[in-house]
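Hi Q.,

Before the meeting this afternoon, I wanted you to have the adenosine-5'-triphosphate prediction in hand. No need to reply - just skim if you have a minute. The sequence and ligand are here:
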Amino acid sequence: MGSSAKATKPERPRPSRDGSPPRADLIGGSTAMERARSLVARFADLDAPVLIDGETGTGKEVVARMLHAGSHRAAEPFVAVNCGALSDTLIESELFGHVKGAFTGASADHPGLFVSAGKGTIFLDEIVSMSPRLQASLLRALETGEVRPVGGTRSRRISARVVAATNRPLAAEVKRGAFRSDLFFRLERLVIDLPPLRDRAEDISALVDHFLRGDFAESGAVASAALLDDLRHRPWPGNVRELRNVIERMVLLSGSQAVLLPESPAANDATADPSPIMHTPNASAPSGAAGYPSRLDFLRAAFRERRRLTRGDAIRLLHCAPETAARALAQLETEKFVRRVSTSAHHRTSHFEIVAS
Ligand SMILES: Nc1ncnc2c1ncn2[C@@H]1O[C@H](COP(=O)(O)OP(=O)(O)OP(=O)(O)O)[C@@H](O)[C@H]1O
Ligand SMILES: [Mg+2]
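Predicted structure with the ligand bound:
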């Protein structure tokens, strides 16, 4: 084990062209977003830990970065650690450091991210995945302002501010005994709740506008009122991330200057699921039933370009559930548009290759 196993690298805010740090904003005029923005402003410059609570894709990382950017720590590192991504022992040595010889492979002292975050912010994502032992170490760090590296005897002072995020309500985790109540009480003093997008449908048009004018401005695409109305009635299990992905896919599929419309139901599309697709006045764009490009059209275009895709590629390209990608690939296989060239126990690594051209 070495520094290559880092959860994430310490990161300084990247200066934008005018030299100022990049601005990340919480878009949306709902009461919930206004409240979140005002809490961010109030909490940013405090030193106590903040807990950000919200389903996946609701903007927890956006908020964590805003807290950092709005604080006197803004010029110091922002270090993000996904506590669910690494094993318990790895996270422990990543966070708290280790001394040379603490375990096989510990060939040098490692300060740990708490220390290398300096006076910046350490963002502990998916905190609910921490084991009881790590929770105890974190509690100790918060209480004493010190960490002790694995295998070490001396503690080191830490000055980084802790921001934690959870996509499962911590109170419930405490109730079922999966999260320490004393750590919870330390974290819940400053809480920012980000409600799911389905509960703040009034934010959708501002978000769509934000994506179309910002990230995808070059396309010149605009959203029709019908599309916005359609989007407001979706459940959005992936929240704002999913909305962004849907808009991105529509923009990618559309010709320039397209007016994005809701998808018309494509009866013969095996992948038809409630996901909107755009209408494009551009005749050269791929078209499916009723002139609306479907997921299958998109996938066919991707195969023409790349020749070979794995199921994982399809999931990523379509921004869809694995079952939806599997259905789409099965349909293209039935059509003899693609054939399966390897079957793997791990379904994401099965390859599909274009047959037709
Ligand atoms: N209110 C918002 N305004 C603008 N962009 C947003 C907002 N909320 C989320 N986003 C965008 O949605 C995407 C997902 O946000 P983010 O990564 O912060 O979610 P998250 O809550 O950390 O999700 P996860 O639990 O899956 O890690 C990002 O592209 C982010 O910029
Ligand atoms: Mg996140």
